């Protein structure tokens, strides 16, 4: 037990252990000087002036109160009660008060789930600009990763409901989904996964039966996050529908029926998870649960794709946020700890390690902001922007979520043994970092989806056109950087050629290599575009490092692999 400083004696002081750098309480927004500069590229001056105080407030709360709550919520996981004390079957999930307070901050105080769907969030007279909303996610996730899943699912469910549901259903549920009153607002979820089929949605076995004009669901869903949500989107196969993807339909499932009684489904158990422990995930059995058909029969996956796209972007942004927190902590330790007579930061290998952490962190954020812009343009304009968002979302989901695992692990090393202890945030960041690569499709599934977007949705042309335009702007604005910009021009051309060559099943083995190359070429070009704006010259350094460490060797390796495939 440490003696309080005011009671220390001269003898005890000499035996004290040295303080370990502890950066708790710092403002996570102010610690990130590039964030306001980047936001100024996407938000109007009026929006920047309005939202900056809110970002600053969230940054401070995240570094203090929310950080403490997130630690408690991670330690005190949800529990499930399946019966009342009177013996009635009634599923209730108990969530620790710390998690409930986190919910209040996210859903009510900052309106993160409602931000895209109503006016008045944070005093803004219309729906929040896309980048303002995702900045809230970015800052909040740096302290609490698990809760941002229900927040995003609520946002995504509302988006899907507004696009495909009947006017009657929209009028019935939209007010609660977009409410800022914590005591009346609804949370959302999506129940897709079944134990036998995993990511193979075409294998969905959950049945939908129409009885007396009412749809009822039967079957099991194996991994359902936020299982006690007020509303959930569910994939099921109507009786008589064809096998395969063509028979899968989308349904809206209320937790409570119109008569005030619980709907007919059970939460069988909660999952014991590696990460996102604060947020419950469970297994659900439908026993004739009342549900509403959303859109057309047999179009379920296409409609659910609205939620999947949004969730994949959210996964990318949240992975970027997780990397940012890991990098921020690593920098603080390196600045404030001494070893071998020097600050860690001054040791050459440590500087190199921090540079690597920074690069992956900034790549994910810049690519995420570009994807968010594409999603906003797709909603407002459509056309090629829809094709662009179709390919950018799997790209960021694939690469940023994988990079987060390495960044979190390497940042733990910077703190050393203490980083392995659950009292510090690094251990939790490592655990949380693995979820992104599993959620909304594993790496193989998502890499193949990149190929699918190229082949079926003409998304490659939108990708090339978009990054060609950013590169052209940089070429005009940065005359002293023509050497690297010419190399990026060549890399972009090579992406187009090689992506076109990967056309049959034998080439699927190259999907991951192609997806990585496309992601990093997009990151490097985005860095150059950012550097062409005032006050962001450092982004050109990130551009050069991305080319040297992430593009050059991948480009050559993929070319060699394509030649080998052609020869065999």
Short account of what is shown:
This protein has 568 residues and is of the alpha+beta class. The chain has helices spanning 10-14, 34-39, 45-63, 65-75, 97-109, 130-141, 148-164, 167-177, 300-336, 348-380, 384-415, 425-433, 443-457, 459-477, 482-501, 511-531, 538-567, and strands at 79-83, 89-94, 188-191, 207-211, 214-225, 231-238, 249-254, 265-270, 281-294, 338-339, 342-343.
Write out the strand line-up for the largest beta sheet, numbering strands in chain order. Answer: 4-5-9-7-6
What fraction of residues sit in β-strands? 5-15%
The CATH topology of the domain at 34-177 corresponds to Butyryl-Coa Dehydrogenase, subunit A, domain 1
Annotation, overall tally of beta strands: 11
The rounded distance between the terminal residues' Cα atoms is 68 Å
Task: Give an overview in words.
It is a single chain. This protein is an alpha+beta fold and 568 residues long. Among the domains are: 34-177, Orthogonal Bundle (Butyryl-Coa Dehydrogenase, subunit A, domain 1), CATH 1.10.540; 188-299, Butyryl-CoA Dehydrogenase, subunit A, domain 2 (Beta Barrel), CATH 2.40.110; 458-568. Helices cover 55% and strands 12% of the residues. The chain contains 17 helices and eleven strands. The strands form three sheets. Strands 4-5-9-7-6 form a five-stranded mixed beta barrel. It has a two-stranded antiparallel sheet with strand order 1-2. A two-stranded antiparallel ribbon has the order 10-11. Strand 10 and strand 11 (342-343) form a beta hairpin. The termini are far apart.
